[in-house]
Amino acid sequence: MRISVDLDRCTGHGRCYTLAPEVYEPDDEGYCVILAADVPVELADKARLGARNCPEDAITVHEDASAG
Amino acid sequence: MAANANPQAIYKLMRDNVPVMEDTSTGVPSTVVALHADIWALLHDPKVFSSSYDAVHIGQIRPLIPLQIDPPRHAIYRRLLDPLFAPRRVAPLEARTRALVTELIDAVVDDGACNFHAAVAEPLPSTVFLQLLGLPLARRDEFIALKDGIIRPPATTPDERTAMVNETGAEIYAALEEVVAARAEQREDDFVSAFLDAEVDGRQLSHEEVIDICYLFFLAGLDTVTASLDCMLAFLARHPEHRRRLVEDPEVIPHAVEELLRWETPVAGVARITAEATELSGCPIPAHQPVMVMLGSANTDERSWPAADEVDFDREVNKHLAFGGGVHRCLGSHLARMELRVVLEEWHARVPEYRLADGTELAYSQGLRQIDHLPLVW
Question: Minimal Cα distance from A54: which residue of B?
Fold first, then answer.
């Protein structure tokens, strides 16, 4: 699984890094930074949870892309 | 007043019957928007649904920064202001916020009763915010009266409201000028001092820009968390099963904060103005029309939410718009969330069993849903 964030859409709500700090973190302005685009299997649910809770629909989960 | 206490039922009537409604009751026609899909779309279309100076008059003589600046200029101010309220800057404030909450609870815990609004909901966020901004805490009550004069003027006609709001606005400008002049002489560790040395676009912020940021902060920082705390405690006092959950499982509190923000939506609506003629859900809206964006209705729209009218702290997906959405997402949302969480944690640890005093009828103010008299007993 791979994840990506569209920084033109992210406005810094911070739902992703609050719910899934293992996968996402805030930058100095509070916008989304993805810790590792290739998500290990054990964090896949967390990655999805963060993406599904983004109020701006800024995070895309690419289910088919295999980890690293 | 009943409508303000249970706005969710009114929102549903609006969505089902007049999802895009022309309101002519105030003299200036405006459009009220109730559907989540329309609201999400317009919040993300700032070219048509502008947040410029004319969207709302709250005593200001120039556009408020950054709320009333449209893209692309908006971004230069957010780049300056976002870091001040980012999670990394908010986290270190948690310890002193918790100490302050503890002090406020200490003052009432043995009484078995308090007006929660006066005891906690008003003093906590205003103290935190005045310290951050750099306004003198000794004048807190005066400042709170000024922001109420803008947000809840006791006016009976639109003209009277305009006159009152402008007069109060002039007093706020005077208070801010005083503080900015003092910081120009001597910097302190506060936002006003930081603004005086701040740069945007490779130049220093002008005096007017500093004032225009502070004016917005003054109104936003002194009201919204207070209203949110009022709404949350009022809900929990009337819903013992939800309250008990917070007591028994404090880890659910961050989720409860989100769900209560969704359900109560303390900032019930935000204002926009159309830059050109447009339409929503097939309803035409003329150019230069004020638009009231009912965030509370978006957050309870059964077309977009499963079990929209259930307050469920275990909701797995919660993309509420209580802090707005798009480029004007509430600048203070991270600070607000921290304060709300800390109050719910400390209050329920110290006062696990409480209810509304017998015979209480809660009066919520309109727009920003504050409850001046929130008598709890335990």
Answer: B319
Q: Are B323 and B333 in contact (CB under 8 A)?
A: yes
Of A52, A53, A56, the CB nearest to B325: A56
Tell me the per-residue pLDDT of B269-302, one tens digit each, with 9 for 90 and over. 999 999 999 999 999 999 999 999 999 999 999 9
Out of A15, A26, A52, the one facing B86 most closely (by C-beta) is A26
| Cα separation values, B319 from A16, A49, A51, Å | 11, 11, 10
Q: Within 10 Å of residue B221's Cβ, how many Cβ atoms?
A: 26
The chain B residues in contact with chain A (CB within 8 A) are: 78-79, 82-83, 85-88, 254, 316-321, 323, 325-327, 329, 333-334
Give the whole-angstrom CA distance, residue A16 versus residue A53.
7
pTM: 0.96
Q: Which of residues 3-32 of A touch B (CB under 8 A)?
A: 11-15, 17-18, 26-31
Alpha helices in chain A (DSSP H): 15-19, 44-52
Paired sense of beta strands B30-33 and B290-293, if any: parallel
Question: Could you give the ipTM of this predicted complex?
Answer: 0.95
Dump pLDDT digits (tens) for B320-345: 999 999 999 999 999 999 999 999 99
Chain-chain contact of B325 with A28 (C-beta, under 8 angstroms): no
